[in-house]
Design goal:
By secondary structure, the chain is mostly helical. Helix content is 41%, strand content 5%. The protein has one domain (2-361): Chloroperoxidase (Orthogonal Bundle). The two termini are 28 Å apart. Residues 1-18 and 151-156 have low confidence and may be disordered. The protein binds protoporphyrin IX containing FE. Pfam families: Peroxidase_2.
């Protein structure tokens, strides 16, 4: 719960300021009185079903005439995910970086060939924690300029930038939240990634480089971040993101999950596809993650008492102990969602149930469904 406290302080500050509550800001952690005062200013929406998997799911030109890269405008939001940043900067997502879950899933599928089940799981988990469940809008990050009513970057923990259940430590190209900026591109870390690409990948980013760099970033966080936390969903996401980058930033005509250095810089730093970029040759999910883990098998845990005090958490699931994801599912619902929304009412309660159902559906019926807010919606 402690990890949500700074968010709650910020949310309360936003509520009590004269600024209108942003339509994409999460209501998690607010009191019923605060929510009641915000509700009249929000346009309540019943979430639509997620889009189906792609029918035509081969490679195609996606940096096309309809989706040119454009520079950021004042107010546009970007965050810790280079995939979503790129989709927004090419107009596959609204260029301002605020979108519905349906738009995020559709854009990830169309623009990159992200596989449907994982696109839905990433999106609904993120939306449940970081999105506004009444308006059905999620911000992929924070304003990239210093204008407007939101606190200036990097202090603004809006949207996906919120550190905790979704955004986490030991990212490849973003710093740990402990240092104050968990979402801007970090040149020092990227330079180190380039060195690893030269050493282990003949200048390319691939599974082997990902395996070595993932381990290196964990070791760095253990040695420098007294609050390093590598438990729960973060453990899984940290490994999966490394292969999503290899599989989806690789041009579909190569079809080898390898990414040249200049293309990697384009995605990670500038939210930009290479000229003539073709999406992956087929839908990709977590292919390659076993290679990354196999390079340096590691267990979830945290620094319990300052730097270099990494202690394994035996209660945190792993790829081996939780192959179907049921422990992750239960942990997410009980420890992340319910504490943020202990007693929701009305539209908020209905939309929580709808989004929780979409999230549960990504576990393929293998887990026992939880109904913290009742069954019907
Ligand atoms: C489907 C919806 C998606 C959501 C909600 C999402 C969300 C996120 C978030 C919150 C992070 C930050 C995690 C962290 O490092 O702390 C992240 C990282 C990342 N995402 Fe996404 N993502 C999505 C789709 C994609 C797609 C389609 C791609 C690739 C085309 C992608 C590639 C990556 C990579 C490579 C990272 C790691 C960045 C780094 O460690 O420097 N994601 N994503």
């Amino acid at each position: 719960m402690a990890r949500f406290s700074s968010f709650i302080v910020l949310a309360i500050a936003l509520v009590s300021s004269t600024t209108a509550f942003p339509a994409y800001q999460s209501l998690g952690g607010l009191s019923q009185r605060q929510i009641d005062s915000i509700m009249p200013g929000l346009k309540a929406v019943k979430p639509k079903d997620p889009p189906p998997p792609l029918k035509d799911n081969g490679t195609k030109l996606v940096n096309d005439a309809k989706h040119p890269w454009k520079p950021l405008r004042d107010g546009d939001k970007r965050g810790p995910c280079p995939g979503l940043n790129t989709l927004a900067s090419h107009g596959w997502l609204p260029r301002d970086g605020v979108a519905t879950p349906q738009q995020i899933i559709a854009a990830s599928q169309e623009g990159f060939n992200f596989e449907s089940q994982i696109a839905r799981r990433f999106t609904y988990s993120s939306h449940l924690i970081d999105g506004n469940l009444v308006t059905d809008l999620l911000s992929i990050g924070a304003k990239t300029d210093k204008t407007g009513p939101d606190p200036p970057a990097p202090a603004n923990p809006g949207g996906l930038n919120l550190h905790g259940a979704i955004e986490g430590d030991a990212s490849m190209t973003r710093g740990d939240a402990y240092w104050g900026d968990n979402w801007h591109f970090n040149e020092t870390q990227f330079s180190e990634l380039l060195e690893f690409m030269d050493k282990y990948g003949d200048g390319l980013y691939n599974y082997k480089v990902a395996g070595e760099f993932r381990y290196q970033r964990i070791q760095e966080s253990i040695a420098t971040n007294p609050e390093f936390n590598f438990t729960g969903g973060r453990f899984f996401a940290a490994y999966i993101e490394t292969v999503v980058g290899a599989n989806l930033f690789s041009d579909g005509r190569r079809n080898d999950s390898q990414v040249p250095a200049d293309a990697a810089r384009g995605f990670f730093q500038d939210s930009r596809m290479p000229d003539d970029f073709h999406r992956a040759a087929r839908p990709f999910s977590t292919e390659g993650v076993e290679v990354v883990i196999g390079a340096h098998p590691f267990s979830p845990g945290r620094n319990v008492n300052g730097i270099n005090t990494y202690t394994i958490d035996p209660n945190s699931p792993t790829f081996e102990s939780d192959p179907d994801g049921c422990a992750q599912y239960e942990m997410f619902v009980n420890e992340a969602v319910v504490p943020l929304y202990p007693n929701p009412t009305g539209v908020l309660r209905r939309n929580l149930k709808i989004n929780l159902q979409h999230y549960f559906d990504t576990f393929g019926g293998k887990c026992k469904q939880l109904f913290p807010y009742g069954r019907d919606h």
